[in-house]
Write a structure and sequence with these properties.
Blueprint (H helix, E strand, L loop, with lengths): L6 H59 L3 H14 L4 H16 L3 H14 L3 H17 L3 H9 L7 H14 L3 H13 L8 H9 L16 H4 L1
Helix pairs in contact: 1-2, 1-3, 2-3, 3-4, 4-5, 5-6, 5-7, 6-7, 7-8, 8-9
């Protein structure tokens, strides 16, 4: 502001500036307040939803413990419907898998695993689910499905465990050499600490000896014997 102006002139300039730009300033302040209020309300909303999902998950766990399977399944459907992206819904799905396996329902367990695998946003959890589903498929003789499931993802830090299951697939299909290579890869992998090394070594030691063809001497040609 020009210091040579009189007080009245300076005041008039301030008034003119306010008439032209004042509403922008007020609007900016109000917008900022609205955004902060919205963030707080959204954070409270998210917290409320997380707490509600946690309560349903606890009820589901209690239902499974009490062998109230129908109640557990109803709670799972409620979680999936109302909180589809909640980690509690993912964990509930895995709990239902255990319930199904306890009831000797392999199909139910597989369906629950597939549902979680297709919908979870947790990449780490997705790999764990993929491994569990692959093991179930192998144990039920569905070897090619298990192999396709393993081939459908980057194993990341679970590479050793992927190799172990591939070894189980090869073994189940009678491919001792393939199983040997896969088990050896699991033991030599940088992530081998994530497998039961003693068990994998036992699987490796139990494999039949590799077929080694007899070395036959080359038959000399007439030119060579010349």
């Amino acid at each position: 502001m020009d210091e040579n102006l009189s007080d009245d002139e300076q005041l008039e300039q301030i008034r003119e500036w306010w008439r032209e730009y004042g509403w922008y300033l007020v609007g900016g302040v109000l917008l900022g307040v609205a955004i902060l209020s919205g963030i707080r309300q959204y954070g409270g909303y998210q917290q409320d939803r997380a707490e509600a999902a946690a309560v349903l998950y606890q009820e589901l766990a209690l239902a499974i413990a009490d062998d109230a399977d129908s109640d557990a399944l109803s709670l799972l459907e409620q979680l999936r419907s109302e909180f589809p992206s909640s980690p509690y819904t993912d964990q509930a799905g895995l709990s239902i898998v255990i319930m199904h396996l306890g009831n000797q329902s392999t199909r139910g367990a597989m369906d629950a695993l597939r549902y979680t695998l297709e919908r979870t946003s947790d990449e780490h959890l997705a790999l764990i689910v993929r491994l569990r589903l692959a093991r179930l498929l192998v144990s039920n003789g569905r070897h090619e499905e298990a192999r396709a499931l393993l081939d459908g993802a980057d194993p990341g830090s679970f590479s050793a465990r992927f190799s172990e299951i591939r070894g189980d697939i090869y073994y189940a299909q009678g491919d001792a050499d393939g199983a040997r290579a896969a088990y050896s890869q699991a033991l030599n992998d940088e992530q081998s600490a994530l497998v039961d090394r003693g068990l994998v070594q036992m699987k490796l030691d139990d494999l039949p000896a590799a077929f080694v063809p007899l070395v036959q001497q080359d038959v000399l040609t007439e030119d060579d014997s010349g």
